[in-house]
Amino acid sequence: MPDERSASALSSTASRTMARIAMVGNPNVGKTSLFNRLCGLRAKTANFPGSTVEAHIGKCTIAEPIVEIVDLPGIYAMDLALPESKLCRDCVGGRLEGLEPDALLVVVDATNLQRGLRFALSLAASRRAMIIALTMTDLANARGVSIDPNKLSDELGIPVIRANGRSGVGVEELARALHQARPIPFAHLEAARAPGWIDRQIEGSLGGAHSVGADEDSLSDRLDSAFTHPVLGTICFVLLMIGVFVAIFRLAEWPMNWIEAAFGWLGAETAAILPTGVLNSLLTDGIIAGVAGTVVFLPQIAILFFLLALIEDTGYLARAAFVMDRLMCRFGLPGTAFIPLLSSHACALPGIMSTRLIPEPKDRLATILVAPFMSCSARVGVYVLLVTILFPTNALYAGLAFAACYALGALAALLTALLFRKTILRGKSRPMVLELPPYRFPCFRTAFYTSFDRSVVFLKNAGGIILAICVVMWWISAYPQSEAPPQAQALVAEASIEGISADHAETLLLEASVLTGQHQQQHSFAGQIGRAVQPIFEPLGLDDRLTVAVLTSFLAREVFRSTVTVLVGTSDGDDDDRVATDLRSATRADGTPLFDPATSAALLVFFVLAMQCLPTLAVTRRETGSWKWPALQFFWMSGVAYAAALLTHAVVAGTLNSVGVLL
Amino acid sequence: MSAPTHRRSTPDSKPRPLTELNRGDRAIVREANLDAEHAATLAAMGLCASCELTICRASGRGSPCIVQIDATRLGLAPEVAQKILATVITKPCDCPPNSDCGQAPR
């Protein structure tokens, strides 16, 4: 335990030039918005070995000298057996290397002074220098309660500053006062530990032990009646989620197009500047194309986290978790699991990252394992292609098939969760105990910071892995390099004959390019592997070309479209209908359609359920701390996908044979 | 027309599970038959023995309930609410809002 500092002013330890302050407090007390006000975008996210809990570290430059602030997760008590509490215990106790604080900034909710002061007094045992930030005073004032921070400061013997992270009121004063943090003097601490001291303080400075928040809050009551109602609450939640999804897909469309265009330009420029060869191919086909494939999802992720932060800030998210708990617990998951599962519809990576909201380890693990079943945006391109092939003229059937893909993914996730919770993750699930924070107008600033932070974490986590995958994928597709086939060489020779029209020459060269691409794919390592495992996929109706396309999409499912168009010999492009028409007319060696209805339906089901995203496996490894869980995730999902696709192929083929109907 | 019904404040001597209490009931928690970890979490959140709470949403047909302790609102799964025993100290009345019955309005 550190020695009590005699000096009142905060001083940094000898090894550091900057004092470090750990920010602690209960959940929902306005800690994050206060931290964002103090540190802005200068913060970074820190993870701790063996833990999924995060802390944010930033520099407060509002007042001199600059201090480092560590924003610890919100906890209810230091001595609870929860990862968040352990992290706070270790940090406050100086057991986290490189994060030992010189002082504690305790954030206390003025509307819940009883709980906040009890928490602050529990921290006094550490003998760290302390300062209290009193938040939510505006809410307390609105309830007719005025609080005197000076009086409280006199009683505790440490600075107590009123500060509002949302409006910024008092933040500068707090920043200046950070250096006046000091341990609670022994005499004050002894007095404060006497029974009834907190009640007396509240009575003395606030006008009654039950005055804060004890009054009837009719608006909150009415809102809670609606939002937590089993039927009305579920309808509200579904409508809100539909709105969120529409917003994500609509708003993200423009920046996604810009990102694609920017990377397209970069790839073209790089290809033009560098001489043709391995480096050119690696940079343009491997790294730039691969990184573009990741970064393109950034707008969706940023918008998703922005909207989720806004919704959370209003206090609604806790009500939604409350409503969903009833449904989710039937599948062995807590109500809070719906947030990661929902996020996974944009991308499984942030979805899995957001499972940190779930306190119970087995609940969290089950959610991580099933999150990739949810239809992410990378699947959308494949769904569109296969649904258009299946139902080229019937928009209603196409729409229903598209919706069924999402429903199938969600159903598979819930049933898998139920199975895992009853077998390998068996154990008593922690029943819901959830604080429902007061309703508030959301703070856009906090939502922006949250979105920015999550986006940076996503890029850092996924970027490195994706980059490595891109290089591997490029290599197995590009090597061993083979010469252009004789037919392609003949076409090139024909195009160079004098007197041939420019248009015809261009057509011949394009045809030669397609044949060369096909030849390269078939003779690459990926093609060789595809041919070797083709018998496994034959029952699904896949020939060797489709097998290669499916295998390469195990790295990232969105490459299926480009791979299959190369292998089949059609040209890729933005026009879904034209690509689908070309693929629909493609044939097998025996002349039968390559994409017959049974094969297309089986492929669609396979893509809904299969684990075809290496970055997701890597993030699962990182979040679970073991390769055992991503391995289980991969084999389970792929096995389920294969079985379901096999069944689909048999049913569709059998039905068509017996009814004699052609779709 | 019949006179408005004044339900008397009938303090219960026998503690009852929170799942049996009605919306608007004010009660004092007597005991929580939960494991130590769970009880500690609830105590840290403000729900502990001898604390006073108000039922904001009653637990009905296996659905969770909402209780308020001072300014804190907690959503409790029925499995948890079932194990928390409390004695009712004030029941809501059905009187007009301005009547001087001294009880909490429904």
In brief, what are we looking at here?
By secondary structure, chain A is of the alpha/beta class. Chain A has 28 helices and eight strands. Helix content of chain B is 13%, strand content 30%.
- Which structural class should the secondary elements of chain A be placed in? alpha/beta
Strand content of chain B: 25-35%
Number of domains of chain B: 1
- Alpha plus pi helix count of chain A: 28
Can you put this structure into words, describing what you see?
The complex is a heterodimer of chains A (663) and B (106). In chain A, helix 26 (597-609) runs antiparallel to helix 28. By secondary structure, chain A is α/β, with parallel strands linked by helices. In chain A, strands 2-3-4-1-5-6-7 form a 7-stranded mixed β-sheet, with helices on both faces. In chain A, helix 3 links the parallel strand 5 and strand 6. Chain A has 28 helices and 8 strands. The longest helix of chain A has 42 residues, at 232-273. Chain A has helices spanning 31-39, 83-92, 113-124, 137-142, 149-156, 171-177, 186-192, 197-206, 218-227, 232-273, 278-295, 298-314, 316-328, 338-343, 348-353, 361-370, 377-390, 395-422, 444-478, 486-495, 502-523, 525-537, 544-552, 559-568, 576-584, 597-609, 614-624, 628-659; strands spanning 19-25, 44-47, 54-60, 67-71, 103-109, 129-135, 160-162, 433-436. The longest helix of chain B has 10 residues, at 36-45. In chain B, strand 4 (65-69) and strand 5 form a beta hairpin. Chain B has helices spanning 36-45, 78-81, and strands at residues 16-17, 26-32, 52-57, 65-69, 72-76, 84-90. With 106 residues, chain B is an alpha+beta fold. Helix content of chain B is 13%, strand content 30%. Chain A binds chain B through residues 76-77, 79-82, 109, 111-112, 114-115, 119, 210, 212-214, 216, 220-221, 224-225, 228, 230, 318, 321-322, 325-326, 329, 430-438, and chain B through 37-38, 40-46, 52, 56-57, 62-64, 66, 70-80, 104-105.
